[in-house]
Amino acid sequence: MIYWLTHLKHGHRELTYNPLSEISINMVQTIKYSLIRMFLRTSKTITLELLNTLVGSEVKLIIEAVYKNFALKRLILCNNQLCPEIGKAFAKALYNNDTLTQLSFSGNELTFEVVKALTDVLLVNTTLNHLCLNNNGIDSEGGKALMKAISKNTTLTLLYLKGNDFDYEVHDKLKVTLFTKNISTDLPYLDSYDFPRCSIS
What we know:
Strand content: 5-15%
Mean pLDDT: 79
Structural class: alpha/beta
Order of helices and strands: HHEHEHEHEHEHE
Shape: globular
InterPro entries: Leu-rich_rpt, LRR-containing, LRR_dom_sf
Number of helices: 7
Pfam families: LRR_6
Number of strands: 6
Helix content: 40-55%
Low-confidence stretches: 1-12, 191-197
CATH class of the largest domain: Alpha Beta
CATH architecture of the largest domain: Alpha-Beta Horseshoe
CATH superfamily of the largest domain: Ribonuclease Inhibitor
Protein name: 14263_t:CDS:1
């Protein structure tokens, strides 16, 4: 990679990183995209953790990987502000995925449309066991959709939901549903402090 950056057909390149330089930013994005693509193509088991960093070409690459990559087991996409179209595209890819076991969408301000698409996945998915949806501002309607899906899902063992906007009734019913299904959660008691959590442990 360093050889390519410094010699191959381009002469010497300045590798000093300057966060305000468009050349530096483009260089970092090119390297990151190339590395992600290489790992997705060559690895037998993959964990991807991408925080605050996704750009358009990388989003397409990750969606394709979720759709057809058999090595991707753990995907963490926190604080990427995924728009509804991208969120639904991820959900569509997940609908056909049977290898991913852990997924984090923490801090992405998911709309009801995206949450509903994810609950449709939970109704049919048989491999995902850890799911992180906390700090997304999911409202009570989204919470009700999650409850319906959770009640029918047979594989989830952990679900993070802190930092959403459920009303008291939905919050309590979610806790009961999760307890009944023996699914671990970070939903606090209503008077406890809401500590943020991003990655799946």
